Amino acid sequence: MKNNGIKIKKLIYILLILLSSLSLKSQGFDWQFDSRMPFKSPVFFYGLTTEYGLLSNTAKILFSEAELPCCTFQNGQGYQFSLGAHAEYWENSNLAYSLDFILSNKNSVFNGNSDTLPLRTGEQFISRYEFTSNINNIIIEPSIKYRILNTHFNVNAGLQLGFQYVATSEQNEYVVAPSNWSWKSKKLSSSLPFDLNLIVINPKISIGYDYSLADGMYLTPSLSYNFPLLSIASGQNWRYQSVIFRVTFNYGAFLFID
User: Can you give the C-alpha Rg of the chain in angstroms?
Assistant: First the structure.
């Protein structure tokens, strides 16, 4: 027990030293590129943001071929790429409000259940179905950023609001067996059999780091997680979760903080 008490005291001592060093490294709103070159930091920043993310789709999408039900798509993977404009205002040394205008493109691929049909030769005909989609979003994203323990690390909570529309969509059938079948693949459709929900409402949380590049300029890499409150498809269940890596370039202007 005595040894445990000594270990706990040592751990508390180490934590106090770490917290003290964090405070010394970043006092207040300090985006100084060099401590030997004092700089009065802006409170308003603007710049560009770009992001790349991985999507995990869960759905129950029903498709028909020649008006007969052929397959159900339930799980799919994908990615997204976004580019936008960023504006940020610091209320005080730890709290900032930001607004982003983002153009986003989401690509997803689903593999449907396979068909197995007996053939006269004794073999079996096996096929699989694939659904691909390419969806564009136009989004406005207000958010709040808070610095962690007075360092340049931060947490961010935001809400993506906007609308979506399809760029492309395809449903294809591929032959798995037999290998000598007369065709290998065929396009079943090049349009969605349902309407999209036009409205986008996506909560988003992230953690990032504000890295000083020069006086009045900094870069924020961040990792975020978001999901839609509404189904992507109207009348059918289609949702996703995404993990996104974002980089935002910020340039200070106009107003300054004491």
Answer: 26
Cα 215–150–206 angle (5° rounding)?
90
Q: Is the pLDDT at 9 greater than 60, yes or no?
A: no
Please state the φ and ψ torsions of residue 63, each to the nearest 5 degrees: -125, 155
Structural domain boundaries of the chain? 31-256
Distance of CA 176 to CAs 21, 115, 128, Å?
Answer: 62, 10, 7
Q: How far is CA 238 from the centre of its chain?
A: 17
Longest dimension (CA), the chain: 85
Residue holding tokens 């659904």?
131
Q: C-alpha distances in angstroms, 28 versus 32, 151, 213? A: 11, 9, 18
For residue 186, give the H/E element and its range.
Answer: strand 185-189
Residue 5: predicted pLDDT: 53
Question: What is the C-alpha to C-alpha distance for residues 136 and 131, in angstroms, rounded to an integer?
Answer: 17
Could you tell me which residues are beta bridge partners of residue 88? 45, 98
- pTM of the predicted model as reported, rounded to 2 decimal places: 0.76
Residue of 97 and 184 predicted with greater confidence: 97
Interatomic CA distance for residues 157 and 225, integer angstroms? 10
Fold of 31-256: Porin (2.40.160)
The total of other beta-carbon atoms located within 10 Å of residue 158's CB is 20
Tens of pLDDT, residues 166-178 = 778 888 888 888 8
| CA distance linking residue 251 with residue 219, whole number of Å | 9
Tell me the one-letter amino acid at 95: L
- Report the sign of the C-alpha dihedral through residues 15, 16, 18, 23, in that order: positive
